[in-house]
Model the fold of this input.
Amino acid sequence: MMKQEKNVEKTMEDYLEAILMIQERRGAVRSIDVANQLGVTKPSVTYTTKRLKERGYIVMDEYNFITLTDDGMKIASRTYNRHKILTKFFISLGVSEAVAKADACLIEHDLSPETFDALCEHIQKTEALR
Done:
């Protein structure tokens, strides 16, 4: 995959993850909520949500509330799950929560499935030994 495509996919994953996080906290999700969550401008959200709709990852109702489709939910859940596991792992290593969350966000998209699965297996083994 070319670098440009990877950046587009990472951005979409970030948006889908943010939508899921907001949905869990508030129920309804608006574009302004996504902008605030990600620290981006409203025009950036408009541009990316258009792409997400085109790919079938979200739908927007007549009041512009955003809902994840099944495909969008799969991606968002996978990304959010990786984020939570990586954050928890980094904290267990002694990293501060703020840094752990930031670092998890940086690598959650780029970590191969093989490495992530091995990390999860290691965590399970380590927890079983306690």
